[in-house]
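Annex B. Sample input.
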Amino acid sequence: MGNGITITMGPPSEVNVGGERIAKYGVGRKCRGKVVNFKPYGFFVETETGEFGLVHGRNIKGWQWGLRFDKVFRHGSEIEVEVVDVEEKTNRMAFACE
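Annex B, continued. Sample output.
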């Protein structure tokens, strides 16, 4: 799953800038969160502690391109994600899910 891709989350207003809080999310850690926003390339999840991260389509097990994320995942639904990348300096996280 770790493929060396840099994920850009979008405007700073979407990012929780608590660098110390985001640092606790090590690669491989599983956590629960809610689906909060859809993009053509994936969707954003807010963790139980208020951090945001992107689930890119390539990090969804068995994902078939052409499907719409909002037709498979519901806005506000809780899912389990796995941390695949953490960038403490920019407060960005990337997630994977099944």
